[in-house]
Amino acid sequence: MTRRSLLAATGAFGAAALAGPAFAQNAIDDFLRNTKRGGLTNSFDGTAVAGGGSNSIPNVTTSMPVFSQQVVGHLVGAIEEYRGIVARGGWPIVPADQKLRVGVVHPNVSVLRRRLFISGDLPQSAGASDSFDTFVDQGLKRFQQRHGMPADGVAGPYTFAALNISAPVRLGQLETNLVRLRSMSGFLGNRYVMVNVPAQEIEVVEGERVSSRHAAVVGKIDRQTPILNSKIHEMNINPYWTAPVSIVRKDIIPLMRKNAQYLVENKIRVFDGQTEIDPVTIDWNTEEAVNYRFRQDPSKINAMGSVKINFPNPHAVYMHDTPQQSLFSKLLRFESSGCVRVANVRDMMVWLARDTPGWDRRTIERTIESGDRVDIDLVEPVPVYFTYISAWSTGPGVVQFRDDIYQRDGVSELNIGTNI
Q1: What is the Cα–Cα distance from 195 to 181, expressed in whole angstroms?
Q2: Cβ atoms of residues 384 and 195 within 8 Å
Q3: Is 339 annotated as catalytic?
Q4: Does the active-site annotation cover 320?
Q5: Do residues 342 and 216 make contact, with C-beta atoms less than 8 angstroms apart?
Q6: Is pLDDT above 60 for 12?
Q7: Do 250 and 381 contact (CB within 8 A), yes or no?
Q8: pTM of the entire structure?
Q9: Which of 74, 147, 233, 339 is catalytic?
Q10: Cα(338)–Cα(226) distance, integer angstroms
Q11: How far apart are CA 213 and CA 60, in angstroms?
């Protein structure tokens, strides 16, 4: 609808009101039934797609943990639903030659509507139209939310790529992940932490519900975060960071070749055993540096940030804070060398230390601000699970999909991030 037509319609409403109640209601009814407006009706409710009202669609947000018997049951139901979608021919390909957002009128919007109808993100009552109206906006935001994207209601390259993965491929992804979820269906502990690598997300779980969720930065494709089960036993406040040999070889040596002051600028010292040595004595044109230990002092630029969270594992990985907080706002957060960086990590620290005497939020905050190097040994170690779940369901009509960044689901097109 153009501004001119909206003003004209508004004027018509005013004139109709002066002519009498019956005439006014007829004029409004005619306006609402106008097909160019995308099939809006008197029952329109801005929350209809997000939940509530006769045309409500289930909310995506839930406190249900990914590791739960309910999720397994819902996923079995979702697989049956998707088998039906596949049997009926799947969904249409949405042309990606036109950015779609509120206000756009284009034939591609009709295709997008059909795609969202079939996946259950848009109620049938939204109607058929070339107009990207509020219904389509809410439906697309719900789709984006189910796929771990920012719910901005704009169909761009990443959204188009997710929309156009075929129904048979999505069905196979669901079946693959059902096997993974069933393998974790036993008792995991009353309190535990779950790192879902493809979701780039951490669940802090207590009493079979999620207490908090945290965005995570996980391993790059060539430095993958491993799958593991362990127990968190310790937190190091204001920690030192010791660079693993892989980072010395792949990062520090090349950086020192470009900038001889890199170690000094980043408060990194070099040790041969317990003896500190001068970096100028190292031949940076060779790999001699891998024979030494590189340790970064506690500071605001320390790679660990304010805390390092430890748990025994053969991969020498851990969870930690980061000075690079801007990474958590990125869509694809596969940026680390295998360890996991945690958003809002202080909330997790308080939760982990809850049963350890003397460590409430105020004490933790004060210790961080002091800059002192302090360890917290947890009285009760907390189970932690690093897992790879790229598809799950938390209720009828609520199916979650994530990018198969490490290509473990067996279909290359599911690795959207490297295909667009």
Answers
A1: 14
A2: yes
A3: yes
A4: yes
A5: yes
A6: no
A7: no
A8: 0.82
A9: 339
A10: 7
A11: 14
